[in-house]
């Protein structure tokens, strides 16, 4: 209930980058890349296309639908165990990730300017919510979108730190 009171839609967003992201990815239901997509798959297709994601690291096990979407888009998947040797466009933290097994610093070092962290199921339990807050408050993270079920944390040096609570 608190989320609904705090949240807004794209009309309450005053960052051009976030406004464009939200209108294109969250609210553009017409743009569906594959014809037999579920809502979740269509959402991730728009997400990948909009941000031109070329590499992804999964922390935990990704949902099969999303895994198929990643494979269909020919996105390079980087093992979480090889993070120190690569940088990734996207870090996907699934709801079954064993949090705190990899330090926040290690995760963030594997990302670059314009990378994004996708955080699944933010409010599933207190541990996940605290981990989300820890990532959100880190000095390198700038644009944060709390979508309740999914969170998006962007690393963009050219943007001042802002947090948005958006209804998906």
In short:
This protein has about 170 residues and is an alpha/beta fold.
Describe, in plain words, how this protein is organized in 3D:
This protein is of the alpha/beta class. The chain has one domain: Rossmann fold (3-Layer(aba) Sandwich). It has 6 helices and 7 strands, in the order αααβαββαβαβββ. The protein has helices at 2-6, 16-26, 39-51, 64-72, 104-109, 126-137, and strands at 55-59, 76-78, 88-93, 111-120, 143-146, 150-155, 162-165. It has a 7-stranded mixed beta sheet. The longest helix is centred in the N-terminal third of the chain and has 13 residues, at 39-51. Mean pLDDT is 86; it is low at 3-7.
State the separation between the terminal residues, measured CA to CA. 15 Å
Shape: globular
Order of helices and strands: HHHEHEEHEHEEE
Q: Provide the β-strand percentage band.
A: 15-25%
CATH C-level class is Alpha Beta
Helix content: 25-40%
**What is the structural class?**
alpha/beta
Number of helical regions: 6
The overall average pLDDT, rounded, is 86
Low-confidence stretches: 3-7
Annotated CATH topology? Rossmann fold
Strand order of the largest sheet: 2-1-3-4-6-5-7
What is the topology?
Blueprint: H1 2-6, H2 16-26, H3 39-51, E1 55-59, H4 64-72, E2 76-78, E3 88-93, H5 104-109, E4 111-120, H6 126-137, E5 143-146, E6 150-155, E7 162-165
Parallel strand pairs: 1-2, 1-3, 3-4, 5-7
Antiparallel strand pairs: 4-6, 5-6
Helix pairs in contact: 2-3, 3-4
Notable characteristics:
Rossmann fold, 7-stranded mixed sheet, 168 residues, alpha/beta, disordered N terminus, 6 helices
